[in-house]
Structure prediction request, 166 residues.
Amino acid sequence: MAHEKTDPKMGVIIRITLFGIVAVVATRFGLISYFGYMNDKEHHLKWAMQKPEELDKLREDEAKKLSGGAMPIASAMKLVAADKRQVPGLEPAAADPMREKDTLAGWAQMPKPIDSSAPAPSSSAPAPAPSASTSAAPSASAAPSASAAPPASGSAAPPAPSASGH
Prediction:
């Protein structure tokens, strides 16, 4: 029994492999391009070449509506271009406060910051109890301030970083 005693020709094997890969990739690219071209051509023949009769009728009806009515669109455009926006009978309606409450509803939900520079309350309103930061010794009748109470677990500020640097 005889067998081959020479080494395989690796250069020829690599060239044939690379040629096969390039041929497969080029064939795939060619077929995808051809399919896209034929698909576009068929779409053009079926849809783009047809006359859009319903669309033409709709556009014609819209043109009639725009040119007719209380003020034709052409004269309205001329008024806007001439900056004569006050047309009799077309004044904007005043806002109805009973129906326009939703526009301010979101602002009422926002937290209100404490303004320390607010003006003093009028003499008819009772004066609030002084806080611990403004007077050294609050009166006995004043309730303890919020800053004197221990902070709640959820509202406490985060602890300061330690010097150890963990």
User: Anything to note?
Assistant: The chain is about 45% helix and 0% strand. The radius of gyration is 42 Å. Residues 10-50 form one domain. The CA atoms of residues 107 and 113 lie 13 Å apart.
